[in-house]
Amino acid sequence: MTLPARHFYCTLGLLVSAVAFAQDEEFDYFSKNRELIHNGVQAVLQCNGLFTSHRTLDQVFDQELAYLRSERFGGVVGNASEGDYRVDEANRLVTVGVATGTPVSAVFREGVGCVVSAPGQDLRQDDSLPALTLPYPRFDPAQIDWPNGDRVTVTAHPESIDQDALQAASDWAFERDTPEQDTISLLVVHKGDIVHERYATGFDQTTRTRTWSTAKSIAVTLVGMLVDSGRLQLDASLGIDWEPELLAPEADPRRAITLRHVLNMSSGLYPVDSFGMEYATGSGLAYWAGASSTEGMRHRGLVREPGSYWDYENYDTLLAVYAMKRALKTQEAYSAFPRTALFDKIGMRSTLVGMDRFGDFIFSSQVYTNARDLARFGLLYLQDGVWDGQRLLSSDWIRFVRTPAPATRAQGNFYGGQWWLVPDDVTDVPADAYSAKGNRGQYVIVVPSHELVIVRRGLDFGNQGFEPWELLREVLKAFDGATAPAP
After folding, report:
1. Which of 13, 51, 231, 452 supports an S-S bond with 447, CB 3.0-4.6 Å?
2. 131-145, pLDDT tens digit by residue?
3. Backbone φ and ψ of 77, nearest 5°
4. Phi and psi of 319, rounded to 5°?
5. In whole angstroms, what is the distance from residue 169 CA to residue 473 CA?
6. Which residues contact 409 (CB under 8 A, 6 or more apart)?
7. What is the model's pLDDT at position 1?
8. Is the pLDDT of residue 146 over 90?
């Protein structure tokens, strides 16, 4: 029996499609992206480890790069003695993957840390990369009292603080039962005073390490300052020039996305930083492979109603940062804004905000700082946005970042505006606590009812088993008699 030609070709088409689908399941079409990102992760971390954190190559391989040894990340390239990488000390440049044919370089630039190149870009001959040479305020932090400076006067701690319990909490943080949890610093501030400070071997109060997503809470602070001054509106359209531009851009449904939506991680845009694609697409290409941090984030379609679904996406934060750039109007004002509006005013002299090679802040992760600067940042929030009698951030904005995102209500109200909240099912810590949180165990925990700020820095292999609320529970054992009325 002869099949009609049309039926035959339809059947053949289905067969070809089925074969192609089976092949798709086995073939990684993003393999080149993954290779670039794999080399770029090491280039950026190795460069910043050496030239931003001032660590030795042995230290960088032993700790900063240790988590890359897992199968998920494809392993570390080489070791401290040799490998498929080059370190150019004179130019403060690291290149990884020379022999693989997909080299990625990162070079240190003043004021912003290490900038990742485009694949194959010769950074030694390129003066176009961004830098920030803004002078620092003229004072020596070592001669200025904490918190504006680093001079800490040792005084007797209040009897209400159980020093044995505080030391036990510190030991709990440092003496973990797994090498995948590596605490490098712990700092506890009570009523504005440092009451506990501890560092792992090889680190001290000056050591800058990557904040990862703790940067998001710093970014939202700067965005809030612009909302407070009327230069941005929380519930107005972002006003983004979306890509690709439609024939009728006024009808683009993405125009419904507001600043509130992206700060609540509820933009409704297509997800690119989750579902197993974190190191193949999305912000990974901007973080590690030299792509623009502003292009890919605007090139996503709307798949849900804005505000209806919580999805943790780095690009949502970067959309808010892009709105911040547009509000500040000039590159000069934008580049200087974190320093002039926040860091210089509260003594965060060790904090660098990374940029992509196009001069845009990667403010969702690429910030390098130390424990004391993060404690100052947390103290600003504990003091309701006031520093030395000057209001830098409104109470309304702090209230916003602490208010659960509507899309999280069904799952326990665990996230606000770029800050993490105590979930409804966690009942053994104060409900008013909130935390900045970053990969590899970076936490800034603010507890208004106990007048506490807790900073924990880590080089974990992720967040496995080390949660901020568990740390808070341990620290609070030392402060049973130090409770203030909840706001």
Report:
1. 452
2. 999 999 888 999 999
3. -85, 110
4. -65, -40
5. 9
6. none
7. 40
8. yes
> What DSSP letter does each residue of 158-187 carry, written as one string?
PTTS-HHHHHHHHHHHHS-SSTT--EEEEE
Percent of the chain scoring above 90 in pLDDT = 78
Kindly give, in sequence order, each residue whose CB lies less than 8 Å from that of residue 336, ignoring residues fewer than 6 positions away: 132, 134
Length of the chain: 487
Distance of alpha carbon 65 from alpha carbon 45, whole angstroms = 7
Average per-residue pLDDT in the chain?
Answer: 91
Mean pLDDT (whole number) for 300-317: 96
Mean pLDDT of 355-359: 96
CA atoms within 13 A on the CB side of 136: 14
Tell me, what's the pLDDT at 19?
A: 42
The token pair that represents 398 in the structure block: 């702090």
User: Rounded CA gap, 87 and 457, in Å?
Assistant: 27
Rounded to whole angstroms, the Cα distance separating 444 from 371 reads: 9
The secondary element (H helix, E strand) that includes residue 223 is helix 214-228
Of the candidates 296, 305, 293, the one whose C-alpha atom is nearest the C-alpha of residue 254 is: 305
Within a 10 A sphere around the Cβ of 129, how many other Cβ atoms?
A: 18
Rounded to 5°, angle at Cα 337 from 320 and 260: 20
Helix axes 163-174, 468-476, angle to 10 degrees: 160
What are the structural domains, with CATH classification, of the chain?
Answer: 31-125 (no CATH), 141-212+346-476 (3.40.710.10), 215-336 (3.40.710.10)
pLDDT of residue 127: 73
H helix or E strand, kind and range, residue 1? none
Verify cis geometry, omega within 30 degrees of 0, for the bond prior to 147. yes
Predicted structure pTM score: 0.92
Sign of CA dihedral 192, 194, 200, 201: positive
Residues 180/460, Cβ–Cβ less than 8 Å: yes
> From the centroid of its chain, how far is CA 406?
22
Compute the half-sphere exposure of residue 58: CA atoms within 13 Å on the CB side of its CA: 1
d(CA 188, CA 374) in angstroms, rounded, equals 11
For residue 16, is pLDDT > 60? no
